């Protein structure tokens, strides 16, 4: 699973790079939460920051360490971060939150981010917009109907979907408004939000991502 997931996470879309180039400041301590195979380190290292990458998958962390032996990568549970309060200037979480099951766990995820951020620290977070494509819209409707009929234990807007070579991957299908509400309810001040379309040059219908920039 980890090798397949890592191979699916090689490319860094140009449309995403502004989240790094426009917001990182030299000398900051930055957490890459859900760093996977470390692919975003290429963008972080240009800014001369104090970087720490963490992920729940030991195998993905091993891949990241082999790529960048001198960089700090750790296996860490995102719901119980092994860092003190007010520790990071910025926390990045790219395409992670939609994989976290249940509202309770998503709230805990954001609570931990807020705890480890310094006062006025910045959270930069993205999730996939799974409502954009007709195929996933139909799948979302199917799971909503199963929920209404009492045939699914998943929450509303949760789906299981085959993705790349992986079967039954969990996703929560955020709307932009739902994401903004979740962030503000967690106690963050919303600074900016929007949609990023990636892959225009290789796909007829580019993939859509929602992004949030919020302050503690």
Automatic annotation (TrEMBL):
<dbReference type="Pfam" id="PF08241">
    <property type="entry name" value="Methyltransf_11"/>
</dbReference>
<dbReference type="GO" id="GO:0006400">
    <property type="term" value="P:tRNA modification"/>
</dbReference>
<protein>
    <recommendedName>
        <fullName>Methyltransferase type 11 domain-containing protein</fullName>
    </recommendedName>
</protein>
<feature type="domain" description="Methyltransferase type 11">
    <location>
        <begin position="31"/>
        <end position="125"/>
    </location>
</feature>
<dbReference type="InterPro" id="IPR013216">
    <property type="entry name" value="Methyltransf_11"/>
</dbReference>
<keyword id="KW-0489">Methyltransferase</keyword>
<dbReference type="GO" id="GO:0008175">
    <property type="term" value="F:tRNA methyltransferase activity"/>
</dbReference>
<dbReference type="GO" id="GO:0032259">
    <property type="term" value="P:methylation"/>
</dbReference>
<dbReference type="GO" id="GO:0008757">
    <property type="term" value="F:S-adenosylmethionine-dependent methyltransferase activity"/>
</dbReference>
<dbReference type="InterPro" id="IPR029063">
    <property type="entry name" value="SAM-dependent_MTases_sf"/>
</dbReference>
<keyword id="KW-0808">Transferase</keyword>
<dbReference type="InterPro" id="IPR051422">
    <property type="entry name" value="AlkB_tRNA_MeTrf/Diox"/>
</dbReference>
